[in-house]
Amino acid sequence: MRVGRLMLLYTLFAAISTIANLATQMVMVRLYVGSFAIPVSVLAGTAVGLPIKYILDKLYIFRFATQSTWHDGRLFLVYSVTAIVTTALFWGTEFLLHWLFGTEAMRLLGAAIGLTFGYIIKYRLDARFVFVDRPPKPRERN
User: pLDDT tier at 100 (50, 70, 90 boundaries)?
Assistant: First the structure.
């Protein structure tokens, strides 16, 4: 796949995942207005956005075929682990802008900025550690 097309698709998929994430957050802060509304909304947004991005990346960016449900689960686990660093960047930026300005608009702007930089780093991590051609380890049986 040409680099330009790949970048366009990756950006589109990041936007789809970001919109799903932020929309989920906006819904959650309206459904739950308790003292943990912001952290709950951030976790919910991540829980929605991460699998969407994984599926799109696997199928269309890396064109990676898993060999079984077990292999797919392990791959998603590794994908999720690489997301820890980028999620920390995303959450840190989101919470920082929320703390500095105290408005939902600035919190969501922080989320969008954090997600953008996070996705750039995530692509590099995924290309190097997740979507690589190596046979899955056989499932151990006791």
Answer: very high
Query: Domain extents for the chain?
Result: 3-130
From residue 117, alpha-carbon distances to 38, 52, 140 in Å are: 21, 18, 38
pLDDT in tens, 29-66: 999 999 999 999 989 998 999 999 999 999 999 999 99
CA-nearest of 31, 81, 25, 67 to 49 is 25
104-125 and 3-31 helices cross at what angle (nearest 10)? 140
Residue 1: exposure state from Cβ atoms within 10 A (0-12, 13-18, ≥19): exposed
The Cα-based distances of 104 to 5, 43, 92 in angstroms read 34, 16, 15
Residue 23: HSE in the Cβ half-sphere, 13 Å Cα cutoff = 8
Distance set, CA 141 to CA 67, 137, 138 (Å): 18, 12, 9
Could you count the other beta carbons within 10 Å of the beta carbon of residue 106?
16
Answer yes or no: pTM beyond 0.70.
yes
